[in-house]
């Protein structure tokens, strides 16, 4: 057996020896030709647009947070975002180079670690805007739920993929318990938007996995009941819904100032926008660099730019769907499909809030909104997506990778 494996290694090495061009088989060359370069280009393009958008929103955010003895430089948030991008892009590239089994293991370990961090938030978390969602690390703060999302997708995908090998395992019940536990922890923060996000991701993974239509129909039928229960017993959801439906009336305990200003800002620049630095409505907009950055883009670069950004997110989802058409591995199909759903749904929710089509949820626009937790977590998720959509026959034949597949 030892001699056979040694012969296999020698044969594999002979096929991987650098010969120049596409025949070169160095790790970097193999990664470059096996990666979905179009998907990588779309992600990098969104990151570049995000830097431009944060530069446009940074002066408004600086004015908003300056006062008394505090002075924030006009481009403070832009330079901070540059720092986060410099950390995130190498992380995305490094994760995308991992074999599928190693990427899966990273996701599973991350799911355990960040779920534990989410459990600690009610006890050691810091409060911003009446919500306790962040953990202070001294040099910076991080939001466990942002990092948990891609790892949650990998964990649920792994659980559901076990149905093929172990049909008797109660994987549906296990995935429901995990999702419900995360939802309870998020509602304690409170973070209704992320709760909805995790529920949508779970349902999407069930749909992709081929769960019987009877089960999916029951979940869809239960969704309105869950929404009514949230309205009746969960103050945060009730306040958001009232503010969205009954703006300016006594039925709404909070006003609808943020969505109204977001709508006024996104339409303030018309079709072509006021030009970089020409926006004025953004100075009245709460959180212009994070939750409402899409509105800033609309004011300064026009509704055309907003439409192009929406098309970029649609292109990412469509690209992954096309990539998975001939995928035979259940885990890779579920994980990649779930991660693409995460990017698409999060972008859709953020854009819907900015355009006034949805209640305010505090959802960042992937790769575009300012924030270290968001940028690093999304880059990690995109790295996983790139790893799961790679096409490299040598990885599956390598004796060094076989041992990882027995997770």
Key words describing this protein structure:
16 helices; mainly alpha; disordered C terminus; 68% helix; 407 residues; globular
The proportion of residues forming helix, as a percent range, comes to: 55-70%
| pLDDT averaged residue by residue | 82
- Total strand segments: 3
Q: Judging from the principal axes of the Cα atoms, what is the shape?
A: globular
Number of discrete helical segments: 16
Radius of gyration: 23 Å
Secondary structure class reads mainly alpha
**Major sheet size, sense and barrel closure:** 3 strands, antiparallel
As an assembly, this protein is single chain
Task: Summarize the helix and strand pattern as letters.
Answer: HHHHHEEEHHHHHHHHHHH
User: How far apart are the first and last residues' alpha carbons, in Å?
Assistant: 23 Å
Percent of residues in beta strands: under 5%
Q: Order of strands across the widest beta sheet?
A: 1-2-3
Low-confidence stretches: 249-254, 395-407
């Amino acid at each position: 057996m030892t001699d056979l494996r040694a012969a296999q290694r020698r044969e594999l090495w002979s096929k991987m020896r650098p010969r120049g061009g596409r025949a070169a088989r160095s790790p970097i060359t193999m990664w470059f030709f096996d990666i979905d370069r179009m998907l990588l280009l779309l992600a990098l393009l969104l990151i570049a647009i995000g830097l431009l958008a944060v530069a446009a929103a940074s002066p408004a955010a600086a004015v908003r947070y300056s006062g008394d003895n505090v002075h924030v430089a006009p481009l403070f948030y832009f330079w901070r975002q540059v720092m986060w991008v410099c950390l995130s892009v190498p992380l995305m590239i490094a994760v995308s180079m991992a074999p599928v089994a190693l990427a899966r293991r990273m996701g599973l370990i991350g799911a355990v670690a960040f779920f534990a961090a989410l459990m600690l938030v009610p006890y050691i978390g810091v409060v911003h805007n009446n919500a306790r969602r962040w953990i202070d690390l001294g040099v910076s703060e991080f939001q466990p739920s942002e990092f948990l999302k891609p790892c949650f997708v990998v964990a649920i995908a792994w659980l559901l993929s076990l149905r093929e090998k172990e049909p008797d395992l109660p994987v549906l019940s296990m995935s429901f318990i995990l999702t419900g536990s995360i939802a309870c922890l998020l509602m304690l923060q409170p973070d209704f938007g992320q709760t909805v996000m995790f529920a949508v991701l779970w349902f999407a993974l069930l749909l992709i996995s081929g769960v019987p239509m009877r089960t999916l129909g029951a979940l869809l039928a239960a969704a309105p009941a869950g929404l009514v229960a949230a309205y009746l017993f969960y103050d945060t959801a009730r306040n958001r819904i009232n503010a969205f439906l009954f703006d300016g009336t006594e039925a709404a305990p909070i006003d609808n100032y943020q969505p109204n200003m977001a709508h006024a800002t996104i339409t303030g620049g018309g079709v072509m926008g006021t030009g970089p630095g020409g926006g004025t409505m953004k100075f009245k907009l709460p959180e212009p660099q994070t939750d409402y950055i899409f509105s800033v883009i609309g004011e300064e670069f026009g509704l055309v730019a907003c439409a192009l950004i929406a098309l970029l997110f649609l292109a990412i989802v469509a690209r992954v769907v096309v990539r998975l058409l001939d995928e035979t591995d259940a885990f890779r199909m579920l994980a990649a499909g779930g991660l693409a759903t995460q990017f698409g749904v999060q972008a859709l929710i953020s854009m819907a809030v900015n355009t006034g089509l949805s209640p305010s949820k505090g959802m960042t626009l992937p790769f575009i909104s300012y924030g270290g937790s968001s940028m690093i977590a999304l880059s990690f998720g995109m790295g996983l997506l790139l790893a799961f959509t790679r096409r490299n026959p040598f990885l599956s034949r390598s004796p060094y990778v076989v041992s990882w597949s027995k997770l």
